[in-house]
């Protein structure tokens, strides 16, 4: 297994050479990551050379459309799905709302869906509103102590009425990585589709959606080194079953069916820069192969670095008696998104950390349901510390020193 070249990685992100950010360590990556230069370069090129209506016969327009198509095809290939199964939208929340409206038309009163109380509100609220249409909403509940979802309890919720199961790849406050393939197999065996919120997982390595078996997989490009776009994979079987949510003349095109409005052309095109970055990272570390293999290699490279940095931090946090770590203390079982319940308002603590050059956040992070389920007052919120593969060991040490001063 290759060891991540952190100097190479950080050289791909202009933020690390930006004078206004010097001396500050960024630990609110779960809210939005730094952007790699490949994305910035493509966005700049589009706005300066291609900012015309795409897909017309003249050259600037042809190139604009080609770059948008490239983004979709290359990200889909990294994730092991067909090009037409991947689409873009303004955000993951918006994409989920559109998808929920399609299911509102597709499902019949008396049928059921399963949601969790571990999710960010984006993969919970839109689905719960289907109760207004007579759809039964069943809640798969987390363990109030650990925050974990038990697949065995899901089986108790499933019967022939359940048509859809919605759950996160990992929670943005619990951080535990859920066994998506296992959960999906359970749901499919009961005749249900699955919708997986991957927003908190994808920044730590894009998954192979075909291997996971998920029918829908959603994530946010702006948390995955790209522009502010939501990315949605819908497998063809489900996508063609659901009612078209776009203009009637786009109904026969799978990647347009769930994009009611015109996409942000420049940002869609710039998403190809995420693939550029992943390929550059793989090549620098000596990997050669097809796109899906590149995606898997980069995933493992990122995760190994993150786990190495995360475990000592978790060990130090668990040893304290003045806070509660939410989620697992084993770094291999979680993303490096660490929520700490302090028994007092978290936002002032985050502000205090800023005085020591630590950029972190305090609040409920749109995860009020899991916080309440674990006995944490959303009004107080949690201190959230989140990093990615571009975080250095020196920054983690700076963080732990700052925490010792502030807590």
Structure description:
By secondary structure, the chain is α/β, with parallel strands linked by helices. Helices cover 39% and strands 14% of the residues. The chain has 15 helices and 13 strands. Helix 7 links the parallel strand 5 and strand 6 (193-197). Helix 2 runs antiparallel to helix 11 (272-284), helix 3 (59-78) crosses helix 11 and helix 11 (272-284) packs across helix 12. It is globular. The protein starts with 5 loop residues before the first helix and ends with a helix. The mean pLDDT is 97.
Protein topology:
Elements: H1 6-11, E1 25-26, H2 37-49, H3 59-78, E2 86-89, H4 92-106, E3 112-116, H5 125-128, E4 136-140, H6 151-157, E5 162-168, H7 180-189, E6 193-197, H8 209-212, E7 216-220, E8 230-234, H9 236-241, H10 265-270, H11 272-284, H12 291-318, E9 324-325, E10 337-341, H13 347-354, E11 358-359, E12 361-363, H14 368-373, E13 382-386, H15 393-406
Parallel strand pairs: 1-11, 3-4, 3-5, 5-6, 6-7
Antiparallel strand pairs: 2-8, 7-8, 9-10, 10-13, 12-13
Helix pairs in contact: 2-11, 3-11, 11-12
């Amino acid at each position: 297994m290759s060891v991540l070249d952190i100097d190479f990685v950080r050289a791909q992100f202009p933020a690390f050479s930006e004078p206004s950010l010097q001396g500050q360590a960024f630990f609110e990556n779960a809210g939005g990551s730094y952007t790699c230069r490949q994305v910035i370069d493509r966005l700049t090129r589009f706005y300066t050379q291609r900012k015309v209506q795409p897909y017309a016969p003249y050259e600037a327009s042809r190139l604009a459309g080609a770059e948008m198509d490239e983004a979709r095809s290359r990200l889909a290939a990294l994730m092991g799905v067909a090009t037409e199964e991947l689409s873009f939208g303004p955000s993951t929340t918006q994409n989920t709302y559109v998808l929920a409206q399609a299911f509102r038309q597709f499902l019949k009163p008396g049928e059921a869906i399963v949601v969790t109380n571990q999710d960010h509100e984006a993969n919970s609220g839109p689905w719960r509103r289907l109760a207004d249409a007579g759809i039964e909403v069943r809640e798969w509940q987390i363990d109030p102590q650990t925050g974990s979802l038990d697949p065995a309890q899901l089986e108790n919720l499933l019967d022939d009425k359940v048509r859809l199961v919605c759950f996160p790849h990992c929670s943005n406050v619990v951080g535990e990585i859920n066994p998506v393939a296992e959960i999906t197999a359970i749901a499919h065996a009961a005749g249900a589709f699955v919708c997986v919120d991957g927003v908190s997982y994808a920044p730590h390595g894009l998954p192979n959606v075909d291997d996971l078996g998920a029918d829908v997989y959603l994530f946010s490009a702006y948390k995955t080194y790209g522009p502010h776009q939501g990315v949605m994979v819908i497998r063809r079987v489900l996508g063609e079953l659901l009612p078209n949510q776009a203009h009637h003349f786009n109904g026969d095109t799978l990647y347009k069916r769930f994009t009611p409005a015109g996409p942000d052309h420049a940002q869609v095109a710039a998403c190809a820069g995420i693939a550029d970055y992943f390929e550059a990272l793989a090549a620098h570390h000596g990997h050669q192969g097809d796109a899906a293999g590149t995606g898997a290699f980069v995933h493992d490279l990122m995760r190994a670095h993150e786990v190495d940095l995360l475990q000592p931090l978790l060990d130090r946090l668990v040893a304290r008696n003045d806070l509660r770590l939410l989620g697992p203390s084993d770094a291999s079982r979680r993303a490096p998104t660490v929520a700490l319940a302090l028994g007092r308002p978290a936002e002032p603590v985050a502000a205090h950390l800023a005085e020591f050059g630590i950029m972190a956040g305090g609040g409920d992070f749109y995860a009020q349901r899991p916080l309440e389920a674990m006995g944490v007052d959303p009004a107080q919120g949690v201190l959230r510390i989140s990093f990615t593969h571009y975080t250095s060991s020196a920054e983690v040490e700076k963080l732990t020193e700052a925490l010792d001063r502030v807590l």
